[in-house]
Amino acid sequence: MQPTLAIKFFNEGQLDLFLSTYENRIDAKGRVSVPASFRAVLERNRSPLYVYKSLTHACLEGCGPERISQIVDAIDQMDSLSEEAEILQTMLFSAQEMKIDADGRMLLPAEFIEFAALDGTALFSGIGRSFQIWRPDQHQKRETDFRDRAAKQGVPRLTLGRRPVPGER
C-alpha cells in the first residue's frame, strides 16, 4: 500500500473536509454541478478547485491548492531524477484549475470524461481532504469490494489521535 499525502485546512479552529457522496448529471456540454458542501469548503478557504487524473484508479481527483502544494513539496523531497518523482509528477501535469460558474458547475474537459469513463453522471466521493469523481457503477463496485474485503479480512488498523489546534506546536 502506498503512503498517502495529507494536508490540513483550518478555518477558525474548524477542519474543512470533503465528505459524503453525491451524484450529479453531466450535461451535453460536459458541465457538472460541484456539490454545494464541496464548494463551501473551497469558498471558506478562498481556494480554487484543481482536478487531475488519478494515478491508481479510473477516476478524477479534486482538491484545493494546499493539497497541490503538498504534492509539490513531497516531490521536491525526492531525487528529481527518480522514477518515483516522475510518476508523482504525472498528477501535476494532468491537473487543471476548474472554474466554477454562478450556478455551481464546472466544465469537465473531454479527456477527463473519457479517462474516468463518465457516461452522463458523475459521482463525487468525499475522502477527507480531497475528493474523487467516479462513474457511479465503478464506485459502487469498488465500495462493495472493499466492504467485502473488510468483512472477510478485518478492518485495517486505524490509529486515531487528537487533532492539533491551529497555532499549537
Task: Write a structural description.
This protein is of the alpha+beta class and 169 residues long. It contains five helices and ten strands; from the N terminus they run E-E-E-E-H-E-E-H-H-E-E-H-E-E-H. The longest helix has 18 residues, at 136-153. Helix content is 34%, strand content 22%. It has helices at 36-44, 65-76, 83-94, 110-115, 136-153; strands at residues 10-11, 14-15, 21-25, 31-33, 49-53, 60-63, 96-98, 105-107, 121-126, 131-134. The chain has one domain (10-153): Transcriptional regulator MraZ domain (Chemotaxis protein chec), CATH 3.40.1550.20. Helix 2 (65-76) packs antiparallel against helix 3. The strands form three sheets. Strands 3-9-10-6-5-7 form a six-stranded antiparallel sheet.
CATH superfamily membership, which one? Transcriptional regulator MraZ domain
Please give the radius of gyration in angstroms.
Answer: 17 Å
Overall mean pLDDT: 88
Question: Gap between N and C termini, in Å?
Answer: 30 Å
Concise overview:
The chain is α+β, with helices and mostly antiparallel strands.
Could you outline the blueprint of secondary structure elements for this entry?
Blueprint: E1 10-11, E2 14-15, E3 21-25, E4 31-33, H1 36-44, E5 49-53, E6 60-63, H2 65-76, H3 83-94, E7 96-98, E8 105-107, H4 110-115, E9 121-126, E10 131-134, H5 136-153
Antiparallel strand pairs: 1-2, 3-9, 4-8, 5-6, 5-7, 6-10, 9-10
Helix pairs in contact: 2-3
